[in-house]
Design a protein that fits this description.
Layout (H helix, E strand, L loop, with lengths): L5 E4 L9 H12 L5 H6 L3 H11 L5 H12 L6 H5 L7 H12 L3 E6 L15 H4 L2 E4 L10 H11 L6 E5 L2 H9 L3 E4 L3 H12 L7
Parallel strand pairs: 1-2, 1-4, 2-3, 4-5
Helix pairs in contact: 3-4, 6-10
Length: about 210
């Protein structure tokens, strides 16, 4: 085993299937043009602001649903849940996290929130049972890539940055972690990520 004793995982797009296919499927179901969500919510200044506020817990999921519904011209009813309704657990990384814990590695979750009600992204994943530390951004009034949120997570893990690996599907967040001394892994393919983590940790995380 290496000298790395901690593994911090993003949630959406790491412990779940990728986000983009779910969003594209939602657009198709709603009869929206492909890329409508990206344009309305991530390329529009106000959309970026309210999504950032949601992640920091400054606005509620219902408030976000109302805003996004107007931007997209669709019903706001449980809109976040409808957008991400096709997300499913990613077994390769969930099993790898379990294998890491069995090997004595502390495993934490660091996730930017999409609000916890009326739709809970984390429901059914047993985060409090299966992981050592769970940090959801809105509960700390911060969001990735704020360095302070990484520092909160490291403090709860009780492991120095140089002994921790951070995995995220957003490259900018991986880079933010690396600037604090964590070893970053950009998750683009679960099988490849498990192989990289196995090498970094000195543990075969793909073994059943």
């Amino acid at each position: 085993m290496s000298n790395r004793t901690g593994l911090i995982l993003d949630f959406g797009g790491v412990l779940t299937t990728p986000l983009l296919p779910a969003v594209l499927a939602f657009e198709k179901r709603e009869g929206l043009p492909q890329g409508a969500c990206l344009t309305a919510l991530y390329k529009d200044d106000e959309g970026v602001r309210i999504t950032s506020d949601l992640e920091r817990g400054a606005v509620s999921q219902d408030q976000w649903n109302d805003f996004a519904g107007k931007m997209l011209g669709v019903s706001p009813d449980n809109l976040m849940g409808r957008i991400f309704g096709d997300l499913r657990p990613e077994p390769l990384l969930i099993n790898a996290a379990a294998a890491a814990r069995r090997a004595g590695i502390k495993v934490g979750i660091l996730s930017n929130s999409v609000g916890l009600a009326p739709w809970d992204l984390y429901e059914g994943y047993e985060l409090e049972t299966l992981y050592d530390v769970v940090v959801i951004s809105e509960q700390h009034l911060m969001r990735k890539p704020d360095p302070s949120l990484f520092e909160v997570t490291l403090k709860l893990m009780d492991i120095p940055a140089k002994q921790c690996i951070f995995v995220d599907d957003t490259e900018a967040y991986v880079q933010a972690a690396e600037q604090l001394g964590l070893t970053g892994v950009h998750n683009k393919d679960p099988k490849q990520t498990v192989a990289v983590l196995s090498e970094l940790l000195g543990v075969d995380l793909a073994a059943s």
